[in-house]
Specification:
The complex is a heterodimer of chains A (256) and B (184). With 256 residues, chain A is α+β, with helices and mostly antiparallel strands. Chain A has 3 domains: 51 residues, Orthogonal Bundle (Arc Repressor Mutant, subunit A); 46 residues; 141 residues, no CATH class. Chain A is built from 9 helices and 7 strands. A 7-stranded antiparallel sheet of chain A has the order 1-2-3-4-7-6-5, sandwiched between helices. In chain A, strand 2 and strand 3 form a beta hairpin. The radius of gyration of chain A is 21 Å and the shape is globular. Chain B has 184 residues and is an all-alpha fold. Chain B is built from 9 helices and no strands. In chain B, helix 1 packs antiparallel against helix 3. The chains are: A alpha+beta (256), B mainly alpha (184). At the A-B interface, helix 3, helix 4 and helix 6 of A face helix 1, helix 2, helix 3, helix 6 and helix 7 of B.
Chain lengths: 256, 184
């Protein structure tokens, strides 16, 4: 990739809008081009100061109360339909989602000590989204753990533990290699119903933080352990499905 | 008649993204009262139009309505601009205040001055650059979502974002600009 192309792609890369293959070409160029690296750092510094110093104005309580009242008014006119359990369930889900969104926003705008972690979190989410946006979220398509593991072995220092859980409803569909910060990490891809699940196997030094679940735009990130290595699960499954999957991952493997 | 579920959908949506809506309005209009009024207008409009929501990104749909209400207010304001009061735009007014020492090195600015400085520069940008910066950097919308809010092609979003970033970057590195109107 030449500098001219890289320059055009730079904001897209920075904003997480490049597909994975092009991202990698761009990163290869970045490795050898100090100018493009400097330009990227400049963009990041600008974003940093905007997020840190530009106020995100929060809606005044009066406005919120006013809309809440009008909303309640419209609902009470047709109470029977509003109280249908399905809608109530949807509403509670929406509330949970909003709370998750707030957690992430607080996380993003949080103290500098949390910044490294939040960068990791952001990397994991954006990698998942980028993969979903690409034509195929996987580099090696295989439902066979004995194909996926050797594929990794040829590409990165430590191949992860690869298990298939299709019997339990979480089928292994392949793997890819992605970047988290500057590290190349293996990603195992599973499918559960219509949900695509990414399992990032992280370097032992990286911990995406405590065991709490982090949500962003309807996607959930949760920490797990995979054969003694820290890992992060990113998906849009619901909490129960996610917990079940996490337990499967955490279970020590039988020798096969 | 508007069905309950679509109305409930708008209620949830507006309340869920109320801060995002208000933040956009506040940055576009520069006034608390106007921003709150514009968001309330937007809520009423969204409630009336709830049946017309045709799927797609709901946050972008909601913010597009908010933005249209803000632009409508701006248009009215620009018509009345003949007699603009100086405190209508506190940021511009502030520029004429004498600055303290010329300690213009960024590291030495305390956080409230840094805030003030970036707010001022952002507010000074033309609104079409300001809004993409707010939507992308603060609200973290994707290009696609921003394009939906602005009802423009993604290419336009990209070029405005690039230009907006360059302008803001330049304003922030031009150390001299803040101190210029000293003697006034």
């Amino acid at each position: 990739m030449d500098c001219k192309t890289a320059n055009e792609l730079l904001p897209l890369y920075f904003d997480g809008e490049l597909d994975r293959a092009t991202s990698r070409e761009f990163e290869a160029h970045l490795d050898e081009c100090a100018d493009c690296r400097a330009a990227l750092i400049e963009l990041d510094a600008l974003r940093g100061s905007l997020r840190k110093d530009a106020p995100r104005y929060t809606a005044p309580e009066a406005l919120r109360t006013r809309i809440q009242k009008e909303a309640a008014g419209s609902a009470s006119r047709q109470p029977s339909r509003w109280r249908r359990p399905r809608l109530a369930l949807a509403a509670s889900w929406v509330l949970a989602f909003a709370a998750g969104g707030i957690t992430l926003a607080a996380w993003d705008h949080g103290s500098t000590s949390g910044q490294e972690q939040s960068q990791l979190t952001r990397d994991l989410f954006s990698s998942h989204w980028r993969a979903l946006a690409a034509a195929s979220p996987i580099d090696v398509v295989s439902t066979d753990q004995h194909t996926v593991k050797p594929w990794f072995a040829g590409k990165i220092a430590t191949a992860p533990v690869v298990q298939d859980f299709s019997a339990q409803g979480y089928a292994l569909i392949g793997g890819r290699i992605d970047y988290v910060g500057t590290e190349r990490v293996p990603v195992l891809v599973y499918r559960h119903g219509k949900h695509v699940i990414d399992v990032f196997v992280l370097p032992t030094t990286a911990r995406p933080g405590s065991n709490e679940t982090i949500q962003s735009q309807g996607y959930v990130l949760e920490n797990a352990t995979l054969g003694g290595q820290p890992a992060a699960i990113v998906s849009d499954m619901d909490q129960a499905e996610l917990t079940r999957f996490r337990e499967l991952l955490n279970t020590p493997i039988r020798a096969d | 008649m508007i069905s309950t579920s679509s109305r409930a959908f708008v209620d949830d949506l507006a309340l869920r993204h109320l801060d995002a809506a208000y933040n956009l309005g506040r940055w576009l209009l520069g006034s608390e009262q106007d921003a709150a009024d514009a968001v309330h207008d937007a809520y009423l409009r969204a409630a009336r139009a709830s049946e017309t929501y045709a799927g797609g990104n709901e946050r972008a749909w909601w913010l597009a309505i908010v933005r249209n209400c803000c632009l409508a207010r701006l248009a009215v304001r620009n018509k009345e601009k003949k007699n603009v009061a100086i405190d209508d735009n506190p940021v511009a007014a502030e520029r004429w205040l004498p600055r303290a020492d010329a300690d213009d090195i960024e590291e030495r600015l305390d956080s409230s001055r840094r805030r003030q400085r970036i707010t001022q520069h952002l507010q000074n940008l033309p609104e079409n650059f300001r809004e993409v910066l707010i939507l992308r950097e603060i609200e973290e919308l994707s290009y696609r979502e921003i394009a939906d809010v602005l009802q423009t092609p993604i290419g336009t979003v990209m070029s405005r974002l690039a230009r907006g970033r360059a302008l803001l970057q330049k304003a922030l590195t031009d150390i001299g600009d803040m101190e210029a109107p000293h003697g006034l």
